[in-house]
Amino acid sequence: VQLQASGGGLVQAGGSLRLSCVVSGGTFSLNTMGWFRQAPGKEREFVTAISWSDSTYYADSVKGRFTISRDNAKNTVYLQMNSLKPEDTAVYYCAVARVTRLTNRVYEYDYWGQGTLVTVSS
């Protein structure tokens, strides 16, 4: 199983980016998929997750600014990030959970992408 994340880059505060993550080597239409991020010197933290039924769960820090979506036909999950802030700067990772319910627990995600860097300048 491979997850390929893309779409990161440098953006000014207040700007937007859209991340994509393509999953290959398996079918995970029933699994929850999520995005996490890790800033320099900090632990990996939960950002958002989406279930097979398109239910969603957001960290408080991104609620109202970020939107997760998925296209099972394309084995792809997206993260639309609006109103970006300098504190959103991090490497963003997509992941596939072993469960079908929404979860923010790192240990419940079995497969991880390589990460894509998002840098927000002030």
List keywords for this structure.
seven-stranded mixed beta sheet; 51% strand; mainly beta; 0% helix; four-stranded antiparallel beta sheet; 122 residues
Note the gap between the termini: 37 Å
- Strands, count: 11
User: How big a fraction of the residues is strand?
Assistant: over 45%
Q: Can you tell me the residue ranges where pLDDT is under 50 for at least 5 consecutive residues?
A: none
Q: Helices and strands: which structural class?
A: mainly beta
Spell out the helices and strands N to C.
EEEEEEEEEEE
Number of helices: 0
Structural shape: globular
Question: Overall mean pLDDT score?
Answer: 96
Q: Give the proportion of residues in helices.
A: under 10%
Question: Mind summarizing the main beta sheet?
Answer: 7 strands, mixed
